[in-house]
Amino acid sequence: MVAEADGHPRALVLALHGGGMTAGYFHGSAHPDLSLLTLGRSLGFSVVALDRPGYGHSSAAFPAGQSLREQTTAVFEALDSFTAAHPIGAGVFIVGHSMGLTLALHMAATPRGRDLLGIDGSGAIFHYQPGIVTSESPSDITTEASLNNSRRLREIYWGADRLYPPGTFEPGVRPTAAVPTTEARESAIWTAVLPSIAAEVRVPYQLSVSEYERCWRCTDADLAEYSGLFTAAPVMEIRRQPAAGHNMSLGWAARSYHLSALAFAERCLYAQKSALDQPY
């Protein structure tokens, strides 16, 4: 999914969806205010939301998905193809959700990732809440049937209906998809691999934590521990997003959250232009 800015873009926003979703996560159909693509374009950014390997248009080519290392290579190759034919302004800024955020951090931890403008992320922290990974089959957690039949899964990944526009839970509205088996295994080991990845991230990073996050531990102490892993990042900021569940880009909080992400992108642009060590 592509929304190109009129004229020369300020930058390219690369949006990476989470597990069990497609690129449509960033262009929710339940209400016009949900779309990061529409908002970003209106503010002068070009926005590209990819179907990560194993999802949507790529599911036939990668039925089992790919590891995060393999996805890193694939997404950089996709960026090369896009930037060869389209202007991207000052560079690439990533917005990642859940497994899309873990991919963004993998990308940033590579030598090439040091050229990114920055990262904004949500939906992936450090320690899972007890029983999250092992209580249900990871490959089945976000299908329509499992979400509708499991109160626990609905609470973890969505939360209360009031957090979302009317129609969100009608059949076919949510951009859900089965989690590829390779990615399910990657989810299970994230806590173990994060410290080594975080230590190599050398670009500005902002994490938004939803008020009703039920997948990850997110007390103040948990978030301080998480922040402390990013020892090489010039900026590592954490904010809490009110009135949001895990899938905040599909809820009423989406516009507020997306504005915060793009505001951070603006700060990264300013820092680059001004040769500052960190966003103001």
How are the SSEs ordered, and which strands pair?
Layout: E1 2-3, E2 12-16, H1 36-42, E3 46-50, H2 68-83, E4 92-97, H3 99-108, E5 118-122, H4 144-149, H5 151-157, H6 181-188, H7 190-198, E6 205-210, H8 220-227, E7 236-241, H9 254-274
Parallel strand pairs: 2-3, 2-4, 4-5, 5-6, 6-7
Antiparallel strand pairs: 1-3
Helix pairs in contact: 2-3
Domain count: 1
Strand content: 5-15%
The CATH class designation is: Alpha Beta
Mean pLDDT: 91
User: SSE order, as H and E?
Assistant: EEHEHEHEHHHHEHEH
Spatial ordering of strands, largest sheet: 1-3-2-4-5-6-7
- Give the CATH architecture: 3-Layer(aba) Sandwich
The SS-based structural class is alpha/beta
Shape: globular
Low-confidence stretches: 134-146
Number of strands: 7
Annotation field: number of helices: 9
- Sheet with the most strands? 7 strands, mixed
CATH superfamily heading: Alpha/Beta hydrolase fold, catalytic domain
CATH topology: Rossmann fold
What share of the residues lie within helices?
25-40%
Radius of gyration: 17 Å
Distance between the termini: 31 Å
Can you tell me about this structure?
Strands 1-3-2-4-5-6-7 form a 7-stranded mixed beta sheet, with helices on both faces. It has a single domain (2-274), classed as Alpha/Beta hydrolase fold, catalytic domain (Rossmann fold, 3-Layer(aba) Sandwich), CATH 3.40.50. Residues 134-146 have low confidence and may be disordered. The protein is α/β, with parallel strands linked by helices and 280 residues long. The protein has helices at 36-42, 68-83, 99-108, 144-149, 151-157, 181-188, 190-198, 220-227, 254-274; strands at residues 2-3, 12-16, 46-50, 92-97, 118-122, 205-210, 236-241. The protein has 9 helices and 7 strands. It is 33% helix and 12% strand.
